[in-house]
Hints:
homodimer; 12 strands
Amino acid sequence: MAQPTMDDVATKAGVSRALVSLVMNRSPRVSDHSREKVLAVANEIGYRPNMAARNLASGQTQTIGLMLNDLHNPYFTLMAEGAAAAAEEAEMRVLISSGWKQDSGESQAIELLLGLRTDAVLLGSPRLPELLLEQCAAQTPTVVVGVWATSPAFDTINNDEDHGAELIVDHLMGLGHSRIAHIEGNRVAGGLERRDSFSKSMMNRGLAPILVEGDFDEISGYEGAKTVMALKEPPTAIFAGNDLSASGVLAYLDEAGLSAPGDVSVVGYDDTVLAGVGAVSLTTVFQPCKQIGGTAIQALLERIDGRTEARHEVLEPRLIVRSSTGPAPS
Amino acid sequence: MAQPTMDDVATKAGVSRALVSLVMNRSPRVSDHSREKVLAVANEIGYRPNMAARNLASGQTQTIGLMLNDLHNPYFTLMAEGAAAAAEEAEMRVLISSGWKQDSGESQAIELLLGLRTDAVLLGSPRLPELLLEQCAAQTPTVVVGVWATSPAFDTINNDEDHGAELIVDHLMGLGHSRIAHIEGNRVAGGLERRDSFSKSMMNRGLAPILVEGDFDEISGYEGAKTVMALKEPPTAIFAGNDLSASGVLAYLDEAGLSAPGDVSVVGYDDTVLAGVGAVSLTTVFQPCKQIGGTAIQALLERIDGRTEARHEVLEPRLIVRSSTGPAPS
DNA sequence: TTCCGCAATGTAAACGTTTACATTGCTACT
DNA sequence: AGTAGCAATGTAAACGTTTACATTGCGGAA
């Protein structure tokens, strides 16, 4: 599988290697005649520039690395799609790796990207401690999504969790609910803020929050629902950490012969495609996933261009009321 | 952001560059004393090997590229997870790119991977014609999942579509259905086989297949259901191209005031997490997504090790009956 | 003491590009 | 005719590794 190199093209086309390089990089300095000749030969022998060599020589990759917490979560894949589209516009490509929700996997995933020397990295809800994120930022332009931090070393984009939690609590209280449970997201990648915001909102309104562990996925939604519904005084509403988790809650309720919103109201978070689809459509909090991805790429491009002051963006949440919430049963 | 190089480490540790290289590659030929010294320095100055240089010099990347048709489809992300796990065992990393369901995007995605000179590539339901897949295979070891082909240039892994369609048709006929519609997957990435198998199965049993276009996603499931339910004689059962599409079907039915399986039975394909979750759990055909990913990586590793004969694997489908199918209404 | 063998380390030539700079021929002006 | 200027192309030195091979130094056998 020895692949053709620039030299092969140059020789066969009877020109110098430098000229081939210019052609491949669309330089305007080369004559139409040469350009055509070179392209023809390149095409004929199936030449494809070696990115490693290109990167080594130029110090650039035209590539942005994405580390995503959980590829099974539409929130992240939508973010990736938005990022890919934005990158495309800047003639950049996006390379994805994931830690599959494990600390060690995530380290490796980031390590891989840093080793590749992508021009920048976008970290989607990293689980790693802020210190490590700063180390990453020291190596390459970095934007972190989904983790609250005020580090001057990297940019962040976050949802206003406090406000989101308030919207949900107010909505549910308005429907007459007072025993409201929250199935937490994880305790490492920004789930903590959502949980704390919920607690605070509840407390402020004189209600006791019911909390149960989770990990932002279906299975923990299912388990969490099972746990809280087994309480002596089960909640009349469940606020799941995200839509994925809410799906799990609905699955459990269905299995247990309970209905939403008849018996229990359910709220998700993110407004991913999961929320709209399915027999019971989810009341949830909208997050502009794709747009977040695009904004993150913009921020990275600016950093590549030399910006150094950190920017910490906070997005306003918006409650989307669908059919999974209703009046509290009397 | 000038990053430290091997030379920096070598100088600071008072050794040669080659020795640092040996240490970084865990060679047993270096003394404990030197190893420790080098590692200490590397760690101190935050040295990280440059993959581009490493790749250029060694001709290896220890990396396998994954091109995935649609990151929003759990089928692919599960496959990726399985692949990542298998790669991990072989001390390899996995790099993902997607064409986001567009031909041009897919070309770019594959081009990116080939340019990077990953040691091999795994193509998840590529939309591109077989000719292009062969070109890819000519450059690097290639395994294609989800596309029927008998090319001697690459390996394939596929579901036995004929059998899968038969299982579904028999199941539905057994429940008394005769007007059965199929919402097609796409017409480029292997959706054709599923559609043809369905048609054939129906015909063989003396039934006329009802077909409607689709693209393996929620929206086309929704639209497809809308289309067929508007027929003079609407079907009593819908076989969606995959689970994603089936979700869309369920969403439409719900919106139209119809219920599954009371009014219409619905069948999916893939048995992704979508099938089990949700108020109406899906009858579907099981595919061992993760395992497919793992098998694909195995095949690639063998090819990297020198195997050249192509292997075309066919997996046996298994029908999973859940609550979205029931007797045909009388 | 001499010399062999071996472990540990160093030397230097790749790997396939980019890119600053040098060279070559023209055109067109004086 | 001589030459300035410019477009087109060539030359060669990086870029940061790996790796075959050379060198060093040391312990022990002769």
